[in-house]
Amino acid sequence: MKFSGWRVLREGLTGNAGWTPHWRDPEPKAEYDAVIIGGGGHGLSTAYYLAKNHGMSNIAVLEKGYIGGGNVGRNTTIVRANYFLQGNSEFYSHSLKLWEGLEGDLNYNVMHSQRGLINLFHSDGQRDAFVRRGNAMVNQGDDAVLLDRDGVRKLLPYLDFENTRFPIYGGLLHPRGGTARHDAVAWGYARGADQRGVDLLQNCEVTGIDIENGKVRGVQTTRGAIRAKKVGIVVAGRSGQVAAMAGMRLPIESHVLQAFVTEGLKPCIDHVVSFGMGHFYISQSDKGGLVFGGDLDFYASYASRGNLPMVEHVMEAGMTLMPMIGKAKVLRSWGGIMDMTPDGSPIIDKTDTEGLFIDCGWCYGGFKAVPGSGYSFAHLMATGSHHAPAAKFRLDRFRTGVGLIDEEGTGSQHNLH
Ligand SMILES: Cc1cc2nc3c(=O)[nH]c(=O)nc-3n(C[C@H](O)[C@H](O)[C@H](O)COP(=O)(O)OP(=O)(O)OC[C@H]3O[C@@H](n4cnc5c(N)ncnc54)[C@H](O)[C@@H]3O)c2cc1C
Q1: Contact predicate 95/112, CB 8 Å
Q2: Residue nearest to atom 41 of ligand 1 (CA)
Q3: Which ligand 1 atom sits closest to the C-alpha of 77?
Q4: If you measure from the C-alpha of residue 186 to the centroid of ligand 1, how many angstroms do you get, rounded to a whole number?
Q5: pLDDT by residue (tens digit) across 45-58?
Q6: Which residue owns the Cα nearest ligand 1 atom 9?
Q7: Helix (H, G, I), strand (E, B) or coil at 298
Q8: Predicted local distance difference test score (pLDDT) of residue 410
Q9: Among 49, 171, 272, 392, which has the minimal tally of Cβ within 10 Å of its Cβ?
Q10: Which atom of ligand 1 lies nearest, measured to the CA of 221?
Q11: Which positions of the chain have pLDDT values less than 50?
Q12: Residues with beta carbon inside 6 Å of ligand 1?
């Protein structure tokens, strides 16, 4: 089934009776060439690129819940390539290029909207840091524009420029940054993988990883044992628990990150805006809700709910930056479990067990990484060699201390304050 404007028109005129399910609901086979544990954005994109780029179709994605039920469908949807450090900058640059061709590639409307991301700065020191970051972005081949106070006022007239405790000095605009519809990304990759023969096994929780003589043999699941020559662990907030099934102790802490959505409003915020003096960033969804969030709750937890002090902090920061937000009613909030590494940068690597691979540590920035992560992890799983843009995401950097990518201290225990 292909999507097109003509198809939408025809279905609309004929009672929408011609649509077929986006993917099959197959029974698990006894054996696959590769299994991916985790049907989130990263697991699905890995399966898609394994099939598309490496011709592997005897693959299964094992998801304990339903496709799109994890953080891939519950995040604030920001897509950007504005990293400073080598390792991150080439990876996210590659990922953004994949985003830019994604809808055509998947034949699926993921509502990728490059509306521009503006990081505000409020001091000379912050301006210097953003100038450096902007230069790094431009050197990487991405885009960055330094705005002064008037430049910001022109684009974001609704911010408080007069009475605020933290005057706005300017902002770094990343024009190609923006948002995408999160669950559509999961559905698009799932559909694309299924069309290439990948089995998507939902309600299939992995409960054990079978290893013999240092080689992976398969997995135990709630739907029976499945043999596989290669196994990829891609379970985001549950990475520590699943890796423990293979006897690994990861350098990862799971923390809660919260986000909030207001009632639907007329269009009023047409960029993604990030406050430089508090934990607050915001955009407006295509349905009209203001989508905003802050920072981690700052203690390790597997509870998918947030604490009230962080709610208060986010609301205060929002009111400081744009008092108009006080009139909007918050409709819902949620907390997701983040797989936080100590340096705030991810891991895409082999493990000491032959055939067992791991892709994790995406912290609170893994949505924008979905295309790049799947692409690079599929490359690693299929060829055994690192894909260049992700070559620095090595697991052993936390053991040796060599090659840490400490992007402004955004890891599990921030050193910003
Ligand atoms: C509030 C919030 C806001 C965020 N905002 C942004 C943002 O604006 N931009 C951005 O880039 N990132 C953002 N993120 C981060 C991003 O959502 C995550 O980094 C990313 O979604 C994680 O990768 P994933 O999609 O594969 O995870 P998930 O969708 O969580 O997928 C992991 C899957 O593994 C499955 N699983 C776990 N254990 C097992 C098992 N034993 N067996 C089988 N399956 C298992 C889970 O059920 C789950 O479906 C945000 C996150 C949150 C919570």
Answers
A1: no
A2: 206
A3: 8
A4: 11
A5: 999 999 999 999 89
A6: 78
A7: strand
A8: 66
A9: 392
A10: 42
A11: 417
A12: 37-43, 62-65, 69-72, 74-78, 205-206, 234-238, 242, 257-259, 293, 336, 362, 364-368
